[in-house]
Amino acid sequence: MANNIAEIFSLQGLVVAVIATTEKTITLHANSPRQTAECTKCGLRSHRIHQYHARTVNHGQLNDKIILVKLLFRRFLCKKCCKPFTEQLPGIGRHLSTEHCLHHQLQDVATMSIKGVAKKHGKAWGSVASLLDDIHYEINWGKQGKQISLGLDEHSLRKRRQMVTTITNLTKGKRNLLTILPNDKQSTIVQFLKQCPTKRIVEVCI
């Protein structure tokens, strides 16, 4: 049952032990089902637990409720390195959101302002803006359709005096965020467009 719940909430590889709900949130208490973990330095598996620590991350939304995942991380002690290390959990990176949630935030950036995305996902403006610094997609043009409508939208990172440009496939049934350009300079946009399959681009909306 716990595994089924994890799959429903796209938390494959984890076990959901408890679900707590309030008017605004759904909190899933999850942990790894494995008894051992691989040392991040030497690769040796260890079963000796050094300590525990909890961490809560954003996992998206369901029916206007913010989904939070409260994770129980274990720090193991490596026999070879003689140093503690924290286990790596699937879908959980260095951000305060799961990879599943980050994907949806980036998709929303294609059609909403950073402020709007932050409000929708219950995140700080700076947290959403920081995603745009780290993400660059390699575009698989083969999955974008035979006729493609591109959308270019500028986003202001005002606190850093920086502009970035999101590129979106606006084609009906294929709508998705393609990539994020590091700035709004004309030369950067022109260089990107030169790399596009021009025979399949039917329009560019700015």
Major β-sheet annotation: 5 strands, mixed
Shape: elongated
Q: What would you report as the Rg, rounded to the nearest angstrom?
A: 20 Å
- N-to-C order of helices and strands: HEEEEEEEHHHEEEHE
Proportion of strand residues: 35-45%
CA(first)-CA(last) distance: 48 Å
Proportion of helical residues: 10-25%
Number of E-state strands: 11
- Give unreliable regions as ranges: none
Count of helices? 5
Mean pLDDT: 82
Secondary-structure content class = alpha+beta
Quick recap of the structure?
It is built from 5 helices and 11 strands, in the order H-E-E-E-E-E-E-E-H-H-H-E-E-E-H-E. By secondary structure, the chain is an alpha+beta fold.
Report on this model:
This protein is an alpha+beta fold. It is 22% helix and 37% strand. It has 5 helices and 11 strands. The strands form 3 sheets. Strands 1, 2, 5, 6 and 7 form a 5-stranded mixed β-sheet that branches. A 4-stranded mixed β-sheet has the order 10-9-8-11, with helices on both faces. Strands 3-4 form a two-stranded antiparallel sheet. Helix 3 crosses helix 4. The longest helix has 11 residues. It starts with a helix and ends with a strand. The model has no long low-confidence stretch (mean pLDDT 82).
